[in-house]
Amino acid sequence: MKDKQPVNSSLVVKLPIIVAISVVGGMLIGANFFGGQSKMSNISRGVNKFREILSLVETSYVDSVNTDTLVDFSIKKMLEKLDPHTAYFGTEEAAMARTQLESGFDGIGIEYNLFNDTVYVMSAMPGGPAELVGIRSGDMLVAADGASLVGPKVNSNVIFNKLRGKRGTEVKVEILRHGESSPHTYTVTRDRIPTFSVSAGYMVDNQTAYIKIDRFMESTYQEFRNILTILKNQGAKRLMLDLRGNPGGYKDRAEKIVDELLGGDKMIVYTDGKGTQYDSKTMTKFDGIFEKGAVMVLIDENSASASEIVAGALQDNDRALIVGRRSFGKGLVQMPVSLSDGSELRLTISRYYTPSGRSIQKPYLLGHEEEYDKDYDDRIKRGELFNSDSIKFNEKLKYRTTGGRIVYGGGGITPDVFVGRDTTYYTKYISDLWGKNIIREIALDYANSHQNELSKQSFKDFNKQFMVSDEMLATLKDLAKQTKVKHNEKEYQRSLPYIKAQIKAYIARNVWSKKTINNGLNNEYYQVMSTTDETFQKALRSFEKAEKLARGELVETLSHSLKR
């Protein structure tokens, strides 16, 4: 039995966090220091009650307990009673979440593929720490600082923990090279590795630029502006901006990107919170580099938050044609609050509205996060991802763009041109291939073994002439069998065009568009995949409508056509 002890440092360390959350929550959710004494008194009583219970658990509960874990759990359960996007991150979670929006991280600079319980180096960043010591694509990473990186227990978290670390520190890695029996050992000094949020930026034809943004990070605006400037100098007169799958990020980066495309004194977005402390209105501020010329924005059900700010601002100002499927529907703004132990509270402080006055936030009930998370499944059941006729509008939430086009609030941005989700190629067989990373492994092996002959030709010639051979497909089937992926001929034939496109695209990526320290673009991969991308192809065919908008002419929207 554990001896009774006074409340120790574990609780002392955590108590300021509880108080901080309570105080910040009280300030932002309703109480204030001027006239809010009764509410602050309620907060004090709540903190005292929690402190009393936690002290009793720590000193008198029959079994040993971890008070840190209890506090973290209680905070998370408390926040579940609020909206679906207010959240608490423990110290490690907060650090990982922050790195997703930073412009770089400290590590050794490799991209890897985890295949059949083995870590393969897909590429070593040119000029990065791993490349400088001699590590190259195709190498098998078998150990780091004496810890094995082979076997079923190895996953991305294990790999991150071993390879990432403070710049200037060293990690000893063991690699096995194809065709060699003895491993090589390298001592790699970690350094700052840049990360990029714009994954593609190229000319589709002599007048159409394509830019894909994966998320809105610290560096996103500058990346976007640099690439758009280059493409404009190459003759771009119209722009396809791809925000599909983009979960959002920094609001101000999204606003600046809109400002580059939207001329005049126009509203981009406004926010409304409790009181006026977190109310704001963002207008265009400067002359953008692409204020004239047709703009197309691609979105889908996974485009959220900052992505919806961009799409909503450009749609409401009749500046861009929106193509794809209804976006996620996140119209709540979170303020990150760093707590004393490195953990973080992300507290919802306001709602944002598009220029026409639309709230893009989809409906939710406080404390019913499970129902909120089922929205995606509900869209599938209603057929909304496949057929525009299944989209339902709330007539009470009807708004108009600056030119008079009808748009709707109530959850997400509805596209002007609908493109149903393509499931023709999707089967359990290809899902299993993805899960085992087999397609990427086939492409990596082919690229490495044919590097010399492939690098002698241009990507343009490769893209025009290269065909995935029957021999490569036979190898794919053999690898699938080795990794216990059961072959299904009917599913295989159904997925075959997509399988071939993926293999070809990854070969191109490994040979011509390895992520470089300079820009991080994967143009060749996206150029290959665009041939099977129905949203991309339909957007390309719809530029006439976007050009009408650019000339100040109005076009029929999806919502118009559904109401006729």
UniProtKB/TrEMBL annotation:
Q: Which InterPro entries match?
A: ClpP/crotonase-like_dom_sf, PDZ, PDZ_sf, Peptidase_S41A, Tail-specific_protease
Residue spans crossing the bilayer: 12-35
Q: Which SUPFAM superfamilies match?
A: ClpP/crotonase (SSF52096), PDZ domain-like (SSF50156)
Which keywords has UniProt assigned to this entry?
A: Hydrolase, Membrane, Protease, Serine protease, Transmembrane, Transmembrane helix
State the Pfam families in the record. PDZ_2 (PF13180), Peptidase_S41 (PF03572)
Coiled coil segments of this chain: none
Ranges for domain PDZ come to 98-151
Q: Which family does it belong to?
A: Belongs to the peptidase S41A family.
Q: What is this protein called?
A: S41 family peptidase
UniProt source species: Flectobacillus rivi
